[in-house]
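wait is this the right file?? whatever heres the structure
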């Protein structure tokens, strides 16, 4: 499709990463500061959670307060390991309280959600019909969370096979921003079963992200995210800061590497120079 015929100026794809997904909120806030408001969103796991609230019309700082006010780390009830170690159902009430209707069509912006069908073994993208069940499925980290059974099939974390779902929106936006919050550089002192399991899962997921990253016009992948684990929700302010500062630090690079003059005339060059 010709660039000028694509219906949206900016799209954004948000990766999974547990508490590290709070980085996405900082990225969105920094983009807003410079006049960039993504109009179409895709996400996996934590990226799906942030993405759905953003698509519902919430401002980034409102999403941050939602995370902090509900102390998300305490929302997960540890239980006997039958199908999962944690009950994710309390997150459903958070969706119900903050999103008007359980329907993709009720969102203010188009939203695409990555999930994995355990029965077929395939990655799937959902963007219509019932909303909450697919967001919960996308955030259901295998083993940690119980799978979501939908229409007789078991669904888990979309990040398992497609942790940066870009193909579903690539042809609908002129500029695609990819945000990856699982930086996998060298890591020392990996000890304990929890640390080994998390490192292994993150490395496995990184393999399905490589090609997706090449399809983005601009990528934000803060190296500092590797210092945080999946359940570091208590460090929400710090994670938000990392996303905001990394985006602001690189915003000039973004404006220089992509000819935005024809895409976002309302953005002031003076504001960029004030960085």
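ok assuming it is, sequence goes like this
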């Amino acid at each position: 499709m010709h660039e000028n015929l694509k219906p949206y100026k900016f799209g954004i794809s948000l990766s999974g990463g547990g508490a590290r997904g709070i980085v996405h909120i900082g990225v969105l806030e920094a983009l807003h500061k410079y006049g960039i408001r993504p109009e179409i969103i895709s996400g996996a796991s934590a990226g799906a959670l942030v993405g759905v609230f953003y698509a519902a019309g919430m401002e980034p700082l409102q999403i941050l307060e939602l995370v902090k006010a509900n102390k998300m780390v305490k929302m997960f009830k540890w239980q006997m390991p039958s199908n999962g170690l944690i009950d994710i159902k309390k997150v459903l009430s958070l969706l119900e309280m903050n999103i008007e209707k359980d329907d993709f069509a009720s969102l203010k912006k188009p939203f695409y959600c990555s999930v994995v069908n355990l029965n077929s073994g395939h990655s799937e993208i959902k963007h219509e019909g019932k909303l909450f069940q697919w967001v919960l499925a996308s955030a259901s980290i295998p083993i940690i969370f119980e799978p979501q059974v939908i229409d007789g099939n078991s669904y888990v974390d979309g990040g398992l096979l497609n942790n940066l779902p870009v193909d579903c929106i690539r042809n609908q936006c002129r500029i695609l921003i990819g945000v990856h919050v699982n930086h996998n550089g060298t890591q020392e002192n990996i000890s304990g079963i929890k640390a080994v399991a998390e490192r292994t899962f993150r490395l496995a997921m990184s393999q399905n992200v490589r090609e997706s990253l090449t399809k983005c016009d601009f990528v934000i992948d803060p190296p500092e995210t590797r210092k945080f684990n999946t359940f570091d929700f208590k460090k929400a302010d710090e994670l938000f800061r990392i996303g905001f500062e990394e985006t602001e630090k690189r915003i000039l690079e973004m404006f220089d590497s992509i000819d935005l003059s024809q895409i976002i005339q309302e953005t002031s060059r003076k504001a960029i120079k004030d960085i």
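Confidence is low (pLDDT under 50) at residues 77-81, 266-271. so i think its the right one actually
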